[in-house]
Each structure stands twice: as structure tokens, then as C-alpha cells.
Amino acid sequence: MTRILFITATRIGDAILSSGLLDHVLRTHPDPRVTIACGPLAAPLFRAVPGLERVIVMTKKKGGGHWFDLWRQTVTQRWDIVIDLRESATSWFLLAGKRHVKRNWPGDGAPVHRVEEAAAFLGISPAPSPVLWLDDLARARARALMPDAPVLALAPAAAARFKEWAPERFAGLALALTGPDGALAGAHVAIFGGPGDKATARAVTSQLDPERTHDFTGQLDVLEAGACLSRAALFVGNDSGLMHMAAAAGTPTLGLFGPTDERVYGPWGRQTATVRAGGQADERTRDRLKTSETGLLADLELAPVLAAADNLIRQESAA
């Protein structure tokens, strides 16, 4: 038996990007038993992980109290492997046979994708692709909800306003792709998002045929959403956790970026692509833009997104 403590991200997208690393460790060690520590948003992602013993939900507290809570819950166990992607001091105060604590990327400053960075952290090459572990309950929910027809999945909202493409552009894309001359002619449209994204979803669905439109915004848990996305013909969305989830599920995925850097946060998978708005990405602007109420993808026209979506659909058909 190999006891593993895996400390990963708070945000859904970052947790998904690290999932390939966890999958590799589970597949390359005998009889793995894993405890996963992560934030509350990401926690449901891991409920179907093979060999799972426990998910420790780390709710942020003042003064780093959540790290002390994690130490209290893990200090009595001797771990064969501790993998800490959060660069915390807690990992150094645990009994561990092997200890891997992430440090700042030592490269030359060139952008490195988070999946490649995680792989290099453990010296793994090639980088293992993200994984979405689905359970029977999530799959059953997806079978009940998703129509028995091709589905275009859209996620028009994001965690920050500056990362969102305009709702009317998403609606225009859906009409073009599912219309009589579209690459997904006759397909249904499914909208995905969290409870706080309902207004954005309504701005899209109000422009579409209600008979072929399904708004799942705020109605699904994380794994249910992932199971639904795994049944879609194509996903198009902003830089978000749902984008990474669709790619990990193996769905052809198109991510829309600006100003976040697709070289670092782009969807990872066999059938993925990105379209960038504006000039070169600059991650240094992220803190300044956190409170912006103005979407910075306003200059991204429909045509390049439609062309990229058409290309992904053709690639999938040819595969």
C-alpha cells in the first residue's frame, strides 16, 4: 500500500490542470491510497478518484489558519509520498518517505503551461494530460439531461468580468453553428455556469430557439457538469474552470482568451484550440483587472471564433 497526500489548488481550473499529475502517481505506485487537500470549489472533482481515502476541504481562514487545520488532520499519519502544489510550509512538518513541494518555476521567464510545469515538478515527460474522474451518479444525471442529439456546449461567463466574451457574440456563434448551413446544423445548445452566472446565461438563451436550448446554469454540481460536457459535440467558452473540464473530458474545446495567457492556461487535450483577443498576453495585468467591470474581449469578432470552431469540428469528424 502506498499512502499519498496530494495538496492541490483552490480554483477548479487549476485543480483540473494538476489532475494528470495525480493520475500519473496513482498509476505508477502499488496499491495507492490517496488523501486530497483542496479548496471547497475544487473538492467535488475528486470524489471518484481511484483509491481515494479522504478529501480534506481547506476553507480559507485568517492568518493561514487553514494550513494549521490541514496539519492537525494529517500529522498523525506517516505518508509514503507528499505532493504539495501550494508551496506550503505545512508539508515540511509531516512524516513522509518522499516529499515534493512545488517551488517557483526556475526557467528563463518564457511562458510555461501549467500542465507542463506540474509535470516538470516531478520530472515526468511527456506531461500527463488532465483527467476527469466521473462517477455513476454524474453519468446518470448527464444521460437524463442531455438530449439524444449533437449538443453545442457554451460557457459564456467566467470568474472575472474582464475574461468574458459578449453574450450576443455567444448567441451569434450558436446560431451560425447550429443553423441550416452550420457545421453542427440542427444541434441543440446547452449553457453551463454557476449560480452567479444566470443573468449572463439568460442574455444568451433569450436570443436562441427555446425548443433546442437547455440552460443548466446553477443546476449541476461539478461532476454532473463534467459528465454533461463529456457528451457534447463541441465546447466554446471563456478562460474558466468549465473550459478545462471540457478538455479533460475529451470534448473538442475552444477557449477564448484576452488578456490571460493561453500559453499558460489554455485548454489541454487532443482536440483543443484557442482564439486570442487583442495583443500579446501579459499576466502582470491580472491584479489590476480583477475588479474591472468591462470585458476585454470586446474587440473579438465572431468570424475568427466561428472559423476556429468549424476547424475543430472538422478535425473531430476526420479523427
UniProtKB/TrEMBL annotation:
GO biological process: lipopolysaccharide core region biosynthetic process
Pfam family, one: Glyco_transf_9
Tagged with keyword Glycosyltransferase: yes
Xref: InterPro entries: Glyco_trans_9 (IPR002201), LPS_LOS_Heptosyltrfase (IPR051199)
GO CC entries: cytosol
Keyword Transmembrane: no
UniProtKB keywords: Glycosyltransferase, Transferase
GO molecular-function terms, A-Z: ADP-heptose-lipopolysaccharide heptosyltransferase activity
Protein name: ADP-heptose--LPS heptosyltransferase II, putative
UniProt source species: Glycocaulis alkaliphilus
